[in-house]
């Protein structure tokens, strides 16, 4: 019984240290790490992030937890939201989720980048500039 309590306490501590999450259904974290492609206008005012989640968990969860309602990027600063989400199907079966996060100002871009820096650090990811 004591071991169970200790394990539960450890799980709570791990959950508390994770400060970022990506969700498609509110309250259901997506564990699949996406491929993210960024574009930005030369003047820095507009930009977009394109996410591709290959075989995401949400396909399993949506049967039990509900429908995909958007893309929610959650961190210690709050939440970034996009409703530009679509599913890709191969032979009638869901295979990927694609989402677009539009940023219409330098402030929105900087906020998104702060989220991505936290998310990348937690997931052990790196950033690679596009080759010209």
From TrEMBL:
Compartments (UniProt record): Membrane
Keyword Transport recorded: no
Membrane topology: Peripheral membrane protein
An annotated GO BP: photosynthesis
Secretion signal, residue range per the UniProt entry: none
GO-annotated cellular components: chloroplast thylakoid membrane; photosystem II oxygen evolving complex
Annotated protein name in UniProt: Photosystem II reaction center Psb28 protein
Species this protein is from: Prasinoderma singulare
Record carries keyword Chloroplast: no
InterPro entries attached to this UniProt entry: Psb28_c1_sf (IPR038676), PSII_Psb28_class-1 (IPR005610)
Annotated keywords: Membrane, Photosynthesis, Photosystem II
Matching Pfam families: Psb28
């Amino acid at each position: 019984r004591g071991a169970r309590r200790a394990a539960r306490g450890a799980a709570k501590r791990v959950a508390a240290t994770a400060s970022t999450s990506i969700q498609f259904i509110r309250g259901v974290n997506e564990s699949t790490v996406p491929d993210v492609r960024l574009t930005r206008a030369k003047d820095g005012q507009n930009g977009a992030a394109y996410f591709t989640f290959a075989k995401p968990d949400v396909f399993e969860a949506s049967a039990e937890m509900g429908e995909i309602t958007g893309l929610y990027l959650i961190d210690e600063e709050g939440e970034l939201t996009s409703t530009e989400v679509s599913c890709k199907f191969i032979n009638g079966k869901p295979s990927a989720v694609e989402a677009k996060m539009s940023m219409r100002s330098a402030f929105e871009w900087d906020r998104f980048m702060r989220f991505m820096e936290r998310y990348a650090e937690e997931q052990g990811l790196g950033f690679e500039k596009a080759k010209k």
